[in-house]
Write a structure and sequence with these properties.
By secondary structure, the protein is an alpha+beta fold. Helix content is about 35%, strand content about 25%. It contains 10 helices and 12 strands. It binds cytidine-5'-monophosphate (C5P). Cytidine-5'-monophosphate (C5P) binds near residues 36, 38, 165, 191 and 192. The site of cytidine-5'-monophosphate has 11 residues, from α5.
């Protein structure tokens, strides 16, 4: 933790920002810039981090809550970089852009839930308010896309189709509410390592008998139709994640977690993004609680949580301008 000088009573802005799941994650062969072209269906869920920013003589960052010790409290934190990117874009001098950033984490770190991207998105919204920068949500998403592939979606929230690296977003026509049980893994997975494993698995498959011509990733029309119906029983069997085999090869124990969720009646069971969180779609809120209790009893994960979606994107909860 880093201490910083803030004046008592200085204005503070608090933003709440959701975790994301990928209802579909289709991945294409790696591009020249090292990223993979994606088509993904993002879905924001009600597992929120909270971020407060207030003016300070120099920038600092403190993290409390879930996995706080695993999060860097320095310039390497994406939330810090978000403040610097917004200050540059608004042409604020270094003297005028010192802030204290306080992150209260509930989204586990390196879990496939885009928690780091969420905190960066929260800082963009908070600083836009604190500095009265007046940037539009589209402009904030543009800056967010330069910070990380999942940052624009953390700003948008809801359910949306992501293309490109994931940063090119279109809102999805989705009805209803979806209730989830989330099983957190014993330790995090590096997104870059999961993509590198996916590359290796793909290269091995290309040499085997099941080799197929390289195809670009495509949106599942069946999933989009099911989402429009608002029926979780239709959505559940259509959840898909191309990164799942890579996550399972790095964490074979997740097979047990997924199997346990299915055994307990989940409508769909999937690794979230690059993992290791497993997400289980339930019939309703009570069913999500039953699945969460059963997963805990089976001892197939570190911890469980319940969440529902779609949740809103990063939003101010406490504009506090008492000077
Ligand atoms: O964009 P972000 O910083 O979140 O990505 C983290 C890492 O995940 C990248 O460095 C890259 O290795 C991998 N990645 C990828 N293709 C994407 C998104 C992320 O290969 N579309």
């Amino acid at each position: 933790m880093v201490s910083s000088a803030t004046s008592p009573g200085s204005p503070a802005v608090t933003v709440r920002v959701p975790a994301k799941l990928n209802l579909q994650l289709a991945v294409g062969p790696v591009r020249g810039d090292g990223y993979h072209p994606l088509v993904t269906v993002f879905h924001a869920v009600s597992l929120f981090d909270e971020v407060t920013v207030r003016p300070a003589s120099r920038t600092s960052i403190t993290i409390t809550g879930e996995d706080a010790a695993a999060v860097p409290a320095d310039k390497t934190n994406l939330a810090w970089q978000a403040a610097a990117a917004l200050a540059r874009s608004a042409r604020r001098t270094q003297r005028d852009s010192g802030i204290r950033i306080e992150i209260r984490k509930r989204i586990p770190v390196a879990a496939g839930l885009a928690g780091g991207s969420a905190d960066a998105a929260a800082v963009l919204v908070a600083c836009n308010e604190l500095w009265q920068t007046g940037l539009s949500s589209g402009e904030l998403r543009q800056i967010g896309g330069g910070l990380g592939s999942d940052v624009p979606f953390a700003l948008l929230g809801g359910t949306a189709v992501g293309r490109g690296r994931g940063e090119d977003l279109t809102r999805a026509l989705a009805a209803g509410n979806y209730h989830w049980a989330l099983a957190f893994g014993q330790s995090g997975l590096s997104t870059a390592q999961v993509y590198a494993t996916w590359d290796r698995l793909r290269a091995a498959r290309a040499q085997g008998p099941e080799a197929s011509p390289a195809a670009g990733p495509e949106l599942s029309p069946e999933l989009m139709t099911a989402l429009r119906s608002g029926d979780p029983a239709a959505v559940g069997p259509l959840l898909s994640n191309d990164l799942q085999p890579a996550a399972l090869s790095l964490r074979p124990e997740l097979r047990r977690t997924l199997a346990a969720g299915s055994e307990f009646g989940a409508l769909g069971a999937i690794v979230s993004g690059s993992g290791p969180t497993c997400a289980f779609l339930a019939k309703d809120a009570a069913h999500a609680r039953d699945i969460a209790v059963a997963l805990t009893g089976a001892g197939v994960c570190r911890a469980v949580a319940r969440a529902s979606g779609p949740a809103p994107g990063a939003a101010i909860v406490k504009p506090d301008r008492r000077a």
